[in-house]
Amino acid sequence: MNHERISIIGSGTMGHSIALSISLAGLDVKVWGNNQGDLERGKNGFLEKLEVLCRYNVITQEEAEKIKGRVVFTDVLEQCLQEATFIIEAIPETLALKQEWFQKLDHYCGPETILASNTSGLSPSDIALHTHYPERTVVTHFWNPAHLIPLVEIVRGKHTSDQTVERALALLKKINKKPIVVQKEILGAIGNRLQYALFREAQHILEQGAATMEDIDAAVRYSIGRRLAVTGPFLSADMGGLDVFESISSYLFPDLSASQTSLSAMNHCVEEGRYGQKNGAGFYEWNESFSKKMNDERERELIEWVKKDLKQLS
Ligand SMILES: NC(=O)c1ccc[n+]([C@@H]2O[C@H](COP(=O)([O-])OP(=O)(O)OC[C@H]3O[C@@H](n4cnc5c(N)ncnc54)[C@H](O)[C@@H]3O)[C@@H](O)[C@H]2O)c1
Question: Using 50, 70 and 90 to split pLDDT, how confident is the model at 275?
C-alpha cells in the first residue's frame, strides 16, 4: 500500500508521541482518545513536545504549524477509523482489553486494514485470538518517547502474514524509524530482554556491595552506554575479539545473576511505595530540580541523536 491512512487508538503517553513521529515525517494521522480530558492531555503533550523540537531547532515554527495541521484528535471512534488502512493501538497493557478492542476493530475494519499493537510485551497471537483475520495483526513496539527513539520492534504472531510485516516495515521506514523484525513471539521482544538483563545484573552488583548505585549508573553511562549506541553486542564482540570475549564469558557467565525475581533493593523501594520519579523517590530522591535536570539532560541528548539521524537522511 503506497499511502497508508493511519489512525491511533489511545492518546496517552505513547499514542500522542507516535502521532508526533508520524506527522513529523509529513504524514496525516488521526488519534482517538476515550474522553475529552484524555484527549486534552494528549493534545497538550503533543504541543509541548513540538515546542521543544522548535526550541532545539529540529524544526522551524513554520514547520510546526504544518505538523499541527496533519493531526486530528477525536473521541468519535467512527471518525478516527473511517478510511483507515493502518491502525496502531496504544491503550493500557491489559490482555483482555486489547483482545476486546481487536475484536471490535476486526469487525469494523475491512480485512485489508492492518491492526498493529504497541504492546510492551503481550503476544500478538493472544491479542488477535478473537479476530477473524489474525494475519493482519502485528506488534509495532515504539519506544518512549516515540518521537525521539528510532527503534520500533515489529513482532509477528503465529498467523501474521508476510504482507502485514512488509507493510509495517514500509510505513516505519517512511516515518524515519529504524524498524527490526522479531520473527518469533518472544517475551519482552529484543530491547526489553536486553535492558532487563542489564537491570538484573546492576541490582546484583549493588546487592553484593561491590559499588554504589551512582557508580553502577556511571559505569554504564561512560562506557558501554556510549559505545553501544554505535556497536551492538555482536559488533562489540567482533571488534573486541571473539577469543577474548569467549575467555571472559567462560569465567563470568557462571558468576552473573540468574535471579528469577527482583532483588532486595528494588523490592524495598516498591514495598515502601517509592516508585521513582513519578512520586518523588525511588532508588534516587527525585526533588523538582533533580527531576528537571534529568529530564532536560535526557531530552537534550536524545534530540542531538535525532538531529544526527535527520542530517544523515538529508
Ligand atoms: N509508556 C511507555 O513507556 C510505553 C513504552 C512502550 C510501549 N508502551 C505500551 O503502549 C501502550 C499504551 O501505553 P501508554 O503508556 O501510552 O498508556 P497511557 O495510560 O498513557 O494511555 C493509554 C490511553 O488509552 C486510552 N484508554 C484508557 N483506558 C482505556 C480503556 N479502558 N479502553 C480504551 N482506551 C482506553 C486513553 O486514550 C489513554 O490515554 C501499552 O500497551 C504500553 O504497554 C508503553
Answer: very high
Using alpha carbons, list the distances in angstroms from residue 258 to 201, 220, 233.
Answer: 9, 20, 19
Q: Is 189 a member of any domain?
A: no
Residue 38 near ligand 1, beta carbon < 6 Å: yes
| Of 176, 195, 2, nearest in space to 86 by CA | 2
Where residue 164 falls among pLDDT bands split at 50, 70, 90?
very high
Residues of the domain holding 68: 6-182
Does 108 reside within a domain?
yes
What is the C-alpha to C-alpha distance for residues 243 and 285, in angstroms, rounded to an integer? 43
Can you give the pLDDT at residue 1?
66
Query: Which of 120, 123, 155, 187 has the most ligand 1 atoms within 8 A of CB, as the residue to mutate?
Result: 120
Cα of 37 from ligand 1 centre, angstroms = 15
**276 within domain boundaries:** yes
216 and 178 both lie in a single domain: no
Residues 134 and 14 placed together within one structural domain of the fold: yes
- Identify each DSSP E strand in the chain by its residue range: 6-9, 29-32, 71-74, 86-89, 114-117, 137-142, 151-156, 178-182
Decide: pTM greater than 0.85: yes
